[in-house]
């Protein structure tokens, strides 16, 4: 089989490429931040998650079961990429994605719509996670969209981001400033992570091929190059869902 050279691209590059020329159907949501679906304009500046309480429920066995349904428009190879992404959470957290069953009240409907996107957190009922066959079927993009569905926003919109990155507003495409608006995120005491799978790359939404964000104070550190969940992504997921068994010790951070 021919090697897919795109697998070497960072998650941010893949998402931007897939969503750049996106033309949504009339029943598809508005996107903010590049790939975050919102239900109404009123959600634009808020963190929809904190407003509506969007964590997925935990069962008495300590696990968080999240039903998913994969629509039948994916090839078996594409389905395998999605399944690998879903399964990747099991070994490192108490999150368990499992196939939809009759009677499930909340679930992820994994579809190939226009672009890669997800809502942030549990929305109630079936919620679309779009993984377009045109550009979204990579391990990193699957994990990224699932982390949105679990309640996470982009690293560059973290409440403390100004301590860790500088945003170059003058280089951002007109009208795309809102992709960089800070959100009052709960960071679970975890450090800002340049290698988070939720961190876009330096040139995200650039209008002039100049960087839109740079790490500070050292602009030379690796940044926005993730191709899979980082240890910090995993740790904050476990903290958010109180998967105690999987939480890293505080001593592992240099706080
Ligand atoms: Zn995203």
Give the arrangement of secondary structure elements.
Layout: H1 11-19, E1 30-32, E2 36-38, H2 48-52, E3 64-70, H3 76-87, E4 95-99, E5 106-111, E6 116-118, E7 125-131, H4 139-150, E8 165-167, E9 213-215, H5 231-240
Parallel strand pairs: 3-4, 3-5, 5-7
Antiparallel strand pairs: 1-2, 6-7, 8-9
The structure holds zinc ion.
The site of zinc ion has 6 residues, from helix 4.
Keywords:
single chain; 255 residues; alpha/beta; Collagenase (Catalytic Domain); 2 domains; 5-stranded mixed sheet; two-stranded antiparallel ribbon; 5 helices; 19% helix; binds zinc ion; Peptidase_M12A
The sequence of SSEs as H and E is HEEHEHEEEEHEEH
Architecture (CATH level 2) name of the largest domain: 3-Layer(aba) Sandwich
Cross-sheet strand order for the largest sheet: 4-3-5-7-6
Based on Cα principal axes, name the global outline. globular
The counted number of beta strands is 9
The count of helical stretches stands at 5
Description:
- The chain is α/β, with parallel strands linked by helices and 255 residues long.
- It contains 5 helices and 9 strands; from the N terminus they run αββαβαββββαββα.
- The strands form 3 sheets. The protein has a 5-stranded mixed β-sheet with strand order 4-3-5-7-6.
- A hairpin with a 3-residue loop joins β1 and β2.
- α3 crosses α4.
- Bound molecules: zinc ion.
- Residues 34-36, 144, 148, 154 line the site of zinc ion.
- Zinc ion binds next to α4.
């Amino acid at each position: 089989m021919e090697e897919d050279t795109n697998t070497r691209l960072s998650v941010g590059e893949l998402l931007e490429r897939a969503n750049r020329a996106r033309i949504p159907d009339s029943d598809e949501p508005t996107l903010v931040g590049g790939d975050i679906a919102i239900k109404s304009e009123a959600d634009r500046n808020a963190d929809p998650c904190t407003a509506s309480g969007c964590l997925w429920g935990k069962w008495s066995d300590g696990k968080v079961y999240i039903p998913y349904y994969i629509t039948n428009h994916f090839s078996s190879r594409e389905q395998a990429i999605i399944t690998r992404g879903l399964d990747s959470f099991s070994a490192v957290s108490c999150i368990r994605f499992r196939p939809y069953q009759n009677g499930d009240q909340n679930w992820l409907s994994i579809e190939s719509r226009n672009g890669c996107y997800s809502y942030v957190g549990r929305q109630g009922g079936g919620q679309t996670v779009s993984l377009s066959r045109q550009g979204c079927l990579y391990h990193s993009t699957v994990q990224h969209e699932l982390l949105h569905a679990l309640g996470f926003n982009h690293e560059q919109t973290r409440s403390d981001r100004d301590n860790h990155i500088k945003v170059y507003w003058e280089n951002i495409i007109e009208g795309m400033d809102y992709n960089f608006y800070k959100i009052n995120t709960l960071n679970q005491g975890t450090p800002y992570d340049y290698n988070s799978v939720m961190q876009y790359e330096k040139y995200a939404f650039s209008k002039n091929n100049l960087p839109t964000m740079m790490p500070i104070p050292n602009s030379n550190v690796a940044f926005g190059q993730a191709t899979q969940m980082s240890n910090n992504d995993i740790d904050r997921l476990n903290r958010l869902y109180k998967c105690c068994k999987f939480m890293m010790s505080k001593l592992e951070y240099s706080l």
